[in-house]
Design a protein that fits this description.
mainly alpha; 200 residues; two-stranded antiparallel ribbon; globular
Amino acid sequence: MDLASYADLAIELVNTHEPGRRDTLRDLDDLRALLAHRPHLGGRVGHRDLDTVRQLREQLRAVFVAAGAGDEEEAVERLNALLIQHPIHPQLARHDARDWHLHLNEGGSVPDRYAARAAMGLAVKVDEHGIDRLGVCRAEGCQRVFFDGTAGRSRRYCSDRCAAEDGLAVPGPRRARGTNGHAVGDGRPRGKTATRDSGQ
Ligand SMILES: [Zn+2]
């Protein structure tokens, strides 16, 4: 099991909400849609679960905001609090012709299982790559969060689109430039510089 991959759960959840702009997790259908492609997180959900997941979303965003602002202590403190609040319960299981492998938190509510995976995934990412890898998009008006998988820790934007839009809107000092003189995109490695962390 690749625990670090669960960091995607955190990023995906946080990015359902850009404060003051859009919110795509407002009702139970939205929550079911978020969980639809995560069969191991499936289960009955109610309004209380929705509230809990929305609250988790804000707690996770606060980790990215603190990290993005360079406040490592604050970011780690918040992430540690989530790890305590949502401990993982690993169990070995064997099924569908697969050999023994780890499962996480089979029991508990959907929000609990989501939170335990998201917090653990982020923690493993931080352990492997550093807390400064978590960030918030610098583009005007965009508040999406990301994991910076670039070799040079140069990612500034959530997407190529934001990099392009920001480059057009704010020419000058704020526009980060790569060594080739082009605006730095979302930090996804290109060509030979690609790393296994690309795009997460
Ligand atoms: Zn963005």
